[in-house]
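#dry-run=false #mode=assembly
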Amino acid sequence: MESAPASPVGAEPARPRPGRPRSERARKAILDAATEVLFNEGFDALTAEGVAQRAGVSKATIYRWWPSKAAVAVDAFVLAVQPQVPDRDVGDVRRELADPALVQLRLYRDTPVGTALASLVAAGQSDPEVADALRTRWLGPRRAQALHAVTRAKERGQLRSDVDGEVVLDLIFGPIYYRLMTGHAPLDDSLVGVLVDALLHGLAPDGRLPA
Amino acid sequence: MESAPASPVGAEPARPRPGRPRSERARKAILDAATEVLFNEGFDALTAEGVAQRAGVSKATIYRWWPSKAAVAVDAFVLAVQPQVPDRDVGDVRRELADPALVQLRLYRDTPVGTALASLVAAGQSDPEVADALRTRWLGPRRAQALHAVTRAKERGQLRSDVDGEVVLDLIFGPIYYRLMTGHAPLDDSLVGVLVDALLHGLAPDGRLPA
Amino acid sequence: MESAPASPVGAEPARPRPGRPRSERARKAILDAATEVLFNEGFDALTAEGVAQRAGVSKATIYRWWPSKAAVAVDAFVLAVQPQVPDRDVGDVRRELADPALVQLRLYRDTPVGTALASLVAAGQSDPEVADALRTRWLGPRRAQALHAVTRAKERGQLRSDVDGEVVLDLIFGPIYYRLMTGHAPLDDSLVGVLVDALLHGLAPDGRLPA
Amino acid sequence: MESAPASPVGAEPARPRPGRPRSERARKAILDAATEVLFNEGFDALTAEGVAQRAGVSKATIYRWWPSKAAVAVDAFVLAVQPQVPDRDVGDVRRELADPALVQLRLYRDTPVGTALASLVAAGQSDPEVADALRTRWLGPRRAQALHAVTRAKERGQLRSDVDGEVVLDLIFGPIYYRLMTGHAPLDDSLVGVLVDALLHGLAPDGRLPA
DNA sequence: AGATAAGCGAGACGGTACGTCCAGTCTTTAC
DNA sequence: GTAAAGACTGGACGTACCGTCTCGCTTATCT
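#status=ok
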């Protein structure tokens, strides 16, 4: 799904091929237009025709560089949403887990990112490539960061070392995505608190909770 | 969204109105056809035209009773998937919470119900009525049942009484739906175990876990 | 096409048959409703459903008594438009031919009858029964009347006796219907004058015309 | 109504516009298909879906170039039926008027053109654009030609100069269209003879008729 | 300088499904 | 038996996008 890299990973510095070079202007215009629609109206208001028109670009140019409109959407999404919180070792499991979770939760609740992401996850149900791209380019990086915190917590003895770190991540992110996708309850800040409490101490009533 | 009930809730026993009665045959054929497509190919392979043809019914008949193909899909889904586990008071929080969760997890993993549900949640992102119907007719009932178990656990002193029961449900179902929708990891039985462990005792390494 | 006579030709006076008698109210309501639509909006704005609703009648009742909506329309048309000018022997070909032609021309020009008739002739192109009914019940009677005048004119020696009377009628009515159906020119009164002039004296310039 | 001309009247020779050029193949296939249906089964057996399928063309392509199926039909009709008789000055009113009339009469009687034309005139009753297109593109040209003959006849002193030429045309074409549309009598060749006799000399019995 | 090789905007194309509409028929209960 | 109510099949309507295609033109490198 990842398509049309502006600068390929192991890029030779400007290895020029014959023919007219790709228009950087067009690439940006397409992504901008897609971003705007995706974040304001959601994925399925996003039509190739609409993006082309808005970007002042021909449909063919879109399909020359992306295999489908879904691919454009994922690219647009990932590029538009910057990673927010750098992972730092602060010695405190609680903060290292809760902080990034809270940042994401607020991002989904307070900005159009939530709607956009939800509509992409939705699109992923019928388009495996979208699902894949989303996992690789959005979920993956965010989980990887959180996984570091989990690993450090284990090393510090703050978390059982026999528990699969991946599952721990699911316990944190699961409820957030669940609310995002089903909308049965709002994404309150408090959710993260309870989440981490449960994770660390359980919710049984025996006073092991922090003050 | 709930449309065209076979027998209304407080239904008088066969109060016949003038006019040709609704064809029970057509109703069933439509729902059967929709179910078949939905469970085998997912929501967006489901077309009104296809259902009509498969059911030997005219498109107009579908639209007479359901406002959109999405409404048909939800009806078909809910009617096809029967509640599996009755809620009983067995005195054990662990089992009362884990058992229904496990049943659902396996249902989503081992049968086409998972795909169907995922595609409906997806459809809900762009169709608020689908989202609503899904909450009311699928998520709601299942959460209500689990909520009883949570309430009993609080009464027995097995769960902190100051924690919002709804949030507890999110901690249980969230990770399951998260995996279902994003597919980043399979729906292993073990997930439920860790889930409930965390919920009750936390995952900190202090031996408070059950043998 | 002629259907559902209110009182059959050789009608026995109220020979009561078993069962509920036909509702005269329904019959009239249907024809009235059809008339209203036909004359105001034309034949193809006339729908069976619309007539039924307007008449407070069920569609089945319409189709029990008329074979198609076209049949209803023809009935409605013929019943609504009364014959206007009685044929009388006044000794003057010119008046005997021109007067009824002028009456018809004005009827088509100044009342909704024109539009209704045109739309029925149109319907007749694809429905032979409509065409037939129209010939039998509308064109026929009017031609028959005019034919009497033609016959009298021949007897009086005012018209060549070797000319087919039917063709004479076509010369009179043809131009009127032509303008009615194609609308390339309005139905001016003067048309009839020229028509009859030509018929009797020709349009060659030799002074044989009346003062 | 006139749509999508193959080559505009005052066309610059091959002024290429940007974009994929219109498919001549599709244009022809559509018109051919429409012609075939129109002439064999009449206008209201003509469906956009049918034409599309028969022409191996998508429905959208039809609607891109014609505003309605009626517009396609008129185009198909006019293109399929070539003008048959050139107007020439032969000095003889009788022939100059009777010949084209006879050609048209036979065309309507002996070929499917009659049915097709009748069904288009019919369609014109409910679709003003069809009526208009028909007047402009079919009736008009044929009347214009005949009008020249009438004008010449006036100049030669063979026809009264105070009579509206347009009305003369109605006297000729009216009866033909009348029979075509109502079908009360066949389109015999003899009709034209009587028609022109009447026009020139009248049908009064005074021996002014030609041998 | 010319040949060659893309990229690009424009916009037409075949296809598929949408949701609507109406004809004419059928199936009930009510009179 | 007839009426009213109203559900049913069937099939066309015109619209909206999809992803592909074919143009003429532009912008580069390669010879």
